[in-house]
From TrEMBL, chains A, B:
Subcellular location: Cytoplasm
UniProt biased composition (Polar residues): 1-10
Pfam family, one: Fe_dep_repress
Record domain HTH dtxR-type: where: 31-91
SUPFAM superfamilies: Iron-dependent repressor protein, dimerization domain (SSF47979), Winged helix' DNA-binding domain (SSF46785)
Function comment: In the presence of manganese, represses expression of mntH and mntS. Up-regulates expression of mntP.
Species lineage: Bacteria, Pseudomonadati, Pseudomonadota, Gammaproteobacteria, Oceanospirillales
Top-rank taxon: Bacteria
Record-annotated membrane-spanning stretches: none
Protein source organism: Modicisalibacter muralis
Family statement drawn from the similarity comment of this UniProt entry: Belongs to the DtxR/MntR family.
Main location class: cytoplasm
Protein name: Transcriptional regulator MntR
Key words of the record: Activator, Cytoplasm, DNA-binding, Manganese, Repressor, Transcription, Transcription regulation
GO molecular function per UniProt: DNA binding; DNA-binding transcription factor activity; protein dimerization activity; transition metal ion binding
Amino acid sequence: MTKSESSASSALPDADQQAANFKRVREAHQSEVAEDYVELIADLINTTGEARAVDIARRLGVAHATAVKTIARLQREGLVSSQPYRAVFLTEKGRELAVHSKRRHEIVVDFLRAIGISEKTAQRDAEGIEHHVSEETLAAFERVIRAESLAKKPRPTLADSAKEK
Amino acid sequence: MTKSESSASSALPDADQQAANFKRVREAHQSEVAEDYVELIADLINTTGEARAVDIARRLGVAHATAVKTIARLQREGLVSSQPYRAVFLTEKGRELAVHSKRRHEIVVDFLRAIGISEKTAQRDAEGIEHHVSEETLAAFERVIRAESLAKKPRPTLADSAKEK
DNA sequence: TACATTTTATAGCCCGTGCTATATTATTTA
DNA sequence: TAAATAATATAGCACGGGCTATAAAATGTA
Ligand SMILES: [Mn+2]
Ligand SMILES: [Mn+2]
Ligand SMILES: [Mn+2]
Ligand SMILES: [Mn+2]
């Protein structure tokens, strides 16, 4: 294997670069909980009409006390609003974050499906992967999704659009 | 858009399934630090001969006190051994985890490169993504890498191997 | 309306992983 | 060898996000 070939097993990367990468991951983990919460809250509102703490807790797989505490933090951070004994709502800021998170989530899932991952695994892995995907990578994922969907369909090429009429 | 088509924007997934997915992510985050540490320690030993706390801290981008504390935990968990004022070593268990982590890390990086991500971003995103990639997805990544490397090279088909001699 | 059930709130705990500040020990250099 | 520098250890603090247990309020039902 020549030096320039893949999997550079030796030779550590630049220290500062590596440190920056790890820091980025840690930062992603900070925003991660917020992203998953607002995305879920938006989904609950859209489908059931409201987002109650119990449902949020149940779908996240945490104790309701944990969910309530986190919701309090999200309120502090201006992503969510909630009055005592009422359901949880998203602020404008929260809605925006939810939209972006959901879009990214779906792209990741679609991408995993496109490369042949099973539905269940795609859902599973996407829930973690999504938070570590840069804009550049997201764009590449979208390209793959488009390429795959074109390859699958019975050639809806330019010829087809010309054929109509 | 028909109901069975991509990006199911409405219709929440099964609650238990969704909860299980989130739990899986949380579990991954528990093992994540250990994986990154042992991988880095192995790299440092392989290239510089030893893994000192300062270097570990520097490359992880954390204060050395933080690194030392985590190293203590890894020792408790039997992944690492270290005596006071000496460098850090991997146990057999730690070496194994390092090997697996490194392999997975490289596959993820190679995969990102294969779909056209820049070197820097591939390194960046891989550091987080790696911890959320299941075996099934990893296998799919390897397929893509192989497919891409075949497509790129000037057709090293069976014909070529026949040509020699 | 009264009672039972569900939902929400709150307190108190644990653990991991950050940090700074302050010794102490090793190592390098003058 | 002595002093300066570097590396390590340790203490103490903060915060996030888990948990259980308990209390209070809201809601559903008899
Ligand atoms: Mn997620
Ligand atoms: Mn998500
Ligand atoms: Mn990593
Ligand atoms: Mn992660």
